Each structure stands twice: as structure tokens, then as C-alpha cells.
From TrEMBL:
InterPro entries: AB_hydrolase (IPR050471), AB_hydrolase_1 (IPR000073), AB_hydrolase_fold (IPR029058). The keyword Hydrolase applies. Residues 24-267 form the AB hydrolase-1 domain. It comes from the Bacteria. The keyword Hydrolase applies. Keywords: Hydrolase. This is Alpha/beta hydrolase. It holds the Pfam family Abhydrolase_1.
């Protein structure tokens, strides 16, 4: 693990995986996960020549908290990590709650980020013309409504939620993929590390996603963007990626009619092929 210091004195915990001499790709983890989260097939990253870089967002794992942070703040953190690793240009992808953070890098670091992929990515809660709650599982809708009431309300809600056995109450379509041994072996430690300091990182992450303005306009993104979404996703409905694709002028959207949220694991190889190429 590498510790990177930010300009405001915080610490970011960073890990590197796969091919040390490969092309750098920064991964933005889902919520609530940590730097230990990534696709479990490390050989896939090696085969594609990827130097995979992961980090704990503020308040998760070994990274310092940052109360009141916005999605946009991820761009400065990723830039600090890139500086510490000596990276001028790099590629970025994010999954689920990591998707908006990846898009922030696309919008705010256009001179350094070459292209971005976001899988099962939520739209801003203030997205104009989007029925944000339509098709959303009640568990996540309640979380977003609590965030809209402020951090205290969200904290009370999430402390009760975190105590529940969340994987067991996810929709049936998600269970076969999440039950794969290699995925369980990755998610268990990644979640445990995220929550080890307590729930504040997850609360701040959720506030940034649902309770605060993102701090950037997706329509201003100029680098190539690849969006993927499963049409049967109720954790983050596919309408969210459709809305993003309609706003981001450089976006390509692929939807999978038979897939739920966790199918992003199966979509990742094709996404990485695109991310590592230079074609449209």
C-alpha cells in the first residue's frame, strides 16, 4: 500500500495490481467498498497490459475522511495520486457509485484523462427530465430520500441499514453473480476494509452521490466515455445511464437487456478492451 498526501493534508491509501510497467488505469470503487475492490480476474488485467491503480475514497479504509465532499473532489484526489506515481496521462473507470467519480475525472482533468468508462452509473439526483426514483429498489430510494434531508438523517438511516445482511436482501437477479466464489472472495475483504474505520466514509460517499450537487456538468465532458448498464438493474436503473448518454456529447452507451447490476463484472472485459484501445 502507498500513502499519498493531498494538498489539504489528507492521506489517500493506494494499491497497484497486475502489470507494473503497463498502461495506467485508475479504478473508482463502488459504494461502500475500498481499494481492495476490482474485477477478480487479475490475469485479464495482465493480458491487456494494465497497471491497475485503486484507492480508498475519503473515509474508507486507510484514507482520511473529508466531511462535506462532493463528487467533483475525486478529480483532485486522482490527480494527486497520479502526481505521486509520476503519471502524466491515464485512463479511468468506475462502477456503480464509482461511476460519477470517474465522470468527474473526465470533466475536470481533460488534459490528463484519456478516456473513461462507467458501468451501472447513477445520474445526479437533480437530473433535469429524469424520473430519478422510477424503477429503483426501495432500499436505495429510502437512502436517497434520507440524504435529501441532510447528513444527520442519512447517518441515522444508514447505521440501521449497515447492520443488516445486505447481500441477502438484494434482488434475486443479483445473487448468482455475487455468489461466485471468486467474487465473494474479493467483495468480502473489500467491504470489511471499507467499513473498518466505521460508517462515516459510506455516509459521506452517499451524501456526495445523492444529497449534494455533484460539482460538475457531465455535458462539459470532452474525452471519450463508454457507459454500460443492465436493463434489469433496480439498484441503479438503466434510465440513469440513458440520461447521462443523452447529456455527454462524447458518450457511447451499451445496455444489456438481460442483465442486472452485478452483471457489470461480466461486462468488464469488453469495457477494458475499449478502454485500452484508441478507437471510438
Amino acid at each position: 500500500m502507498l500513502e499519498v498526501r493531498t494538498d489539504d493534508g489528507r492521506t489517500l491509501a493506494v494499491e497497484e495490481w497486475a502489470e507494473p510497467s503497463g498502461r495506467p488505469v485508475v479504478y473508482l470503487h463502488g459504494t461502500p467498498l475500498s481499494r481492495l475492490a476490482r474485477h477478480p480476474d487479475e490475469e485479464m488485467f495482465r493480458r491487456l497490459g494494465i497497471r491497475l491503480i485503486t484507492y480508498d475514497r475519503p473515509g474508507f479504509g486507510e484514507s482520511s475522511p473529508m466531511r462535506g465532499r462532493r463528487i467533483a473532489d475525486a478529480a483532485a484526489d486522482v490527480a494527486a495520486i497520479a502526481d505521486a506515481l509520476g503519471l502524466d496521462r491515464f485512463r479511468v473507470f468506475g462502477v456503480s457509485g464509482g461511476g460519477p467519480h470517474a465522470l468527474a475525472c473526465a470533466a475536470l482533468l481533460p488534459g490528463r484523462v484519456e478516456r473513461v468508462a462507467a458501468l451501472a452509473c447513477p445520474a445526479p439526483i437533480d437530473a433535469d427530465g429524469l424520473d430519478w426514483y422510477a424503477g429503483l429498489i426501495e432500499m436505495n430510494a429510502d437512502e436517497a430520500r434520507a440524504a435529501a434531508q441532510g447528513r444527520d438523517a442519512l447517518e441515522a438511516h444508514m447505521k440501521a441499514e449497515i447492520a443488516a445482511d445486505l447481500p441477502s436482501i438484494l434482488p434475486p437477479i443479483e445473487q448468482p453473480i455475487l455468489s461466485r466464489p471468486e467474487i465473494r472472495a474479493m467483495i468480502g475483504p473489500a467491504y470489511a476494509e471499507a467499513m473498518r474505520p466505521g460508517p462515516d466514509g459510506a455516509i459521506d460517499d452517499t451524501m456526495a452521490l445523492y444529497g449534494l450537487p455533484w460539482g460538475f456538468d457531465p455535458a462539459k465532458i470532452t474525452v471519450p466515455v463508454y457507459l454500460w448498464h443492465g436493463d434489469l438493474d433496480t439498484l441503479v436503473p438503466a434510465a440513469h445511464s440513458r440520461w447521462l448518454a443523452s447529456r455527454i456529447p462524447t458518450a457511447t452507451l451499451r445496455t444489456d437487456p438481460g442483465a442486472g447490476h452485478a452483471a457489470h463484472f461480466d461486462a468488464t472485459p469488453a469495457m477494458l478492451d475499449w478502454l485500452m484501445s484508441d478507437s471510438a
